[in-house]
Amino acid sequence: MKLKPIYGLLVALAAPLAQGADLLEAYRAAQGQDSTFAAARATHGAGQEKLTQGRSQLMPTVSLTANSTFNDVITNSASNVRFGLPNPYNSRYNSHGYGISLTQPLFRQQNWISYTQSEVQVSQADAQFRAAEQDLIVRVAQAYFEVLLAQDNVQLAEAQKSAIAEQLAQAKRNFEVGGATITDVYEAQARHDLVSSQQIAAQSSLSIKQRALQQLTNTPVGAVRPLNQALALDPPQPADLRKWVEEATLHSPLVAVAEAAVELADKEVSRNFGGHLPTVDLVASHNQALSNGGSFGAGSDTRSTVVGVQFNMPIFQGMSTQSKWREASANHERAKQDLETARRNVELSTQQAYLGVADGITQIAALKQALKSSESLLDASKLGQEVGVRTNLDVLNAQQQLFSTRRDLYQAEYNYLLNRLKLKAATGTLSEDELAAINKALY
Residue 114: which residues within 8 A CB-CB, separation 6 or more? Predict the structure, then answer.
């Protein structure tokens, strides 16, 4: 489904992203503000003009010329005496003229092929713009999820720091009453110092990711809406990787762009070969020249109308025609290889996205189970520390494992959602509707 881009109106009405902005709001802001997408839109508009330019080579050309001149002529001739004029004779007069000419191509193979090329160029421009539309969705989603992950890392670092601070305070109390060694205090202090530095790094990373999203929306970005805990994990439909690859090879806009390039290159070979062929044009002209004087004092009014067929046969052009034909043939071969590369890249990206969705579901389920186990381990470690069978280090390690597992779970969820979008984009079916469906998972 083709997207519905918002043009000048969206640019004029785009407002800064509010605190708690969601994914759909970020995308709509980027539609009107992202410079890369704006350039793609302008390129698409320019590409649409190719058809008019190609058609013009089949239509007649009409030109009008006009002139007005002042003449100052001195004639020194024996004829002046014969006509009763002084010798030398000086004549001054104005002359005017105009002409209109028409040329209608009757047979110009190169012009016809250029017209068919323009049709392919318009199709190529459409495919390029579809790719740009889908690329914008993926880029916005990726930047948005990176902000979300950075927010999560900040929150996790703060929670981890708070938990370690409690362990540090407990270790100090136990050391004071003789229930723990100074090593326990040092271990907790080292972990507290480490997580403090990680908190600073997480906050810096969040600022950078927010600015990356701001680059797309051209508006300040604050906190964005996180994922709902009840995230629906939908497997790819159909659950057949081979069918997804086939669909991508047939409908990917990137493949369509490369296919159009091959067709253009093939037509360019034929167009350059047409440089050997003759051309036939219908020509017509009408001219009128007026003069209120002349060399012997008499004015004139001359009119002429010409209609005919003009034949032109190229004989020798310094070997340029053959050279251009060989150049076009080499470019045609290059375009075919570029098409093969595009197909392979699309196949690979489709496989990666499909496996990212399918395996992501399994990974998320495993990480959720691992999170439960980590929570149980932390509870058991704290209880064991109270009864003396676990050390302070055991509790710190359990806390670290819990927070690492939670961070990995967040990352896996964002990767799953992003791969869903990439899989749709690979097959050329990504639209705002898919983004809206994912946006419902935010709160």
Answer: 54, 57, 271
- The residue among 202, 181, 199, 180 whose CA lies nearest residue 191 is 199
219: three-class secondary structure by DSSP: coil
Is residue 254 within 8 Å of residue 133, measured between CB atoms? Answer: no
Q: How many C-beta atoms surround the C-beta of residue 129 within 10 A?
A: 22
Are 51 and 184 members of one domain?
yes
Q: For strands 300-312 and 279-291, give the pairing.
A: antiparallel
Closest CA to 257 of 122, 121, 127: 127
Answer yes or no: do 268 and 220 share one domain: yes
Q: Are residues 353 and 341 in the same domain?
A: yes
- Calpha distance 183→166 (Å, rounded): 16
Give me the CATH number covering residue 236.
1.20.1600.10
Integer Cα distance of 184 and 175 in angstroms: 8
Residues pairing with 74 in the sheet: 90
Q: Report yes or no: 434 and 420 within 8 Å, Cβ to Cβ.
A: yes
Helix (H) or strand (E) holding 95: strand 89-107
Same-domain status, 178 and 128 = yes
Cα distances (Å, whole numbers) of residue 441 to 131, 146, 225, 226: 25, 16, 10, 8
Instruction: Quick: pLDDT tens for 187-233.
Output: 889 989 999 999 999 999 999 999 999 999 998 888 888 887 677 88
3 state SS of 134: helix
Q: How far apart are CA 52 and CA 36, in angstroms?
A: 26
Residues 25 and 31: their CA atoms lie apart, in Å, by: 10
pTM above 0.90, yes or no: no
Structural domain boundaries enclosing 43: 8-57+108-277+319-439
